[in-house]
Amino acid sequence: MSKSFDELVNVMARLRAPGGCPWDAEQTYASLSQYLLEEAYETFDAIQEVDKTGDITNLKEELGDLLLQVVFHSTIGAERGDFTIDDVAEGVTKKLILRHPHVFSDTKLEKARDVLDNWDTLKANERKASGKAEKVNDSMLDDVPVHFPGLLEALKLTKKAAKVGFDWENAEQVFEKLDEEVNELKAEIANGSSPEKIEEEIGDILFVIANLARKLDIEPETALKRTNRKFRKRFGFIENRMKDSGRKFEETDLKELDRIWDEAKKSFAAAD
To answer: CATH code at 152?
Structure first.
């Protein structure tokens, strides 16, 4: 591999070796799992920043942190005799070649949709050819990890169901379902239902929203993160206005805060 990559692998091995770093030496697959998740999310945020500003500085750094996690796990794997970083690279390279027959062989797949449709078939064929035991699932949905973030899990679950025809025909039908779920929530609130029941109805609405995003080819987690960033900027605008005027939130009525919020919207309109 490249000189810089080999150096990274060697540095990680040194940190884990006797006389290296006590913290690094104590880590296991399990203890690193949370860091891997955090780095993935930070990389996700950096990608959104590039999309917004064009600045790749943070993305380069976060990809490095994510790569470190792969090398860290592979170093542990090598110590245990499980696998090496070369095994990891070799495995994913073979997978890419096998799952892109339209590039590396004579298979004709001209549309992105055709590639995705062929992906699952190729995965199943690979599993049979490798001699791996077939996964025994009670449901086709069992392939979707339960630890995914809620919106992502909803998206993956409904994509699975849609593949076998369990889906709305168009986005307009999803809007009708959304109206139905909102009305159900309003009814439960009016009836003084329990917090658990209200929570259930809120969940139903979020689930429908995830479906609506899917029907419109929008990734809902990305959409929500974008809105979260927008809220941060606009609320920060309000905070700065309050500081400049020497006022406190508890001393300002909601009408005035809404007025400043509208200013923030106008201020960031072009950027948003």
So the answer is: 1.10.287.1080
Residue 219 exposure: Cα atoms within 13 Å on the Cβ side: 8
Which residue range forms the structural domain that includes residue 48?
Answer: 3-98
Altogether, the residues listed in the chain come to a count of: 272
Q: What is the DSSP letter of 99?
A: T
pLDDT beyond 90 at 108: no
Distances from the Cα of 105 to the Cαs of 1, 118, 122, 138, in angstroms?
26, 14, 14, 35
The angle at the Cα of 25, spanning 20 to 26, to the nearest 5 degrees, equals 150
Question: How would you write 148-188 as a 3-class SS string?
Answer: CCHHHHHHHHHHHHHHCCCCCCCHHHHHHHHHHHHHHHHHH
Spatial separation of the C-alpha atoms in residues 89 and 64, rounded to whole Å: 16
Residue 123 lies in a domain: no
Q: How many helices (H) and strands (E) does the chain have?
A: 12, 0
Instruction: Work out how many domains the chain is built from and give that number.
Output: 3
| pTM of the predicted structure, to 2 decimals | 0.69
Choosing from 64, 98, 132, the residue where a domain stops is 98
Over residues 247-270, mean pLDDT: 91
Q: Work out the number of other CB atoms within 10 angstroms of the CB of residue 34.
A: 9
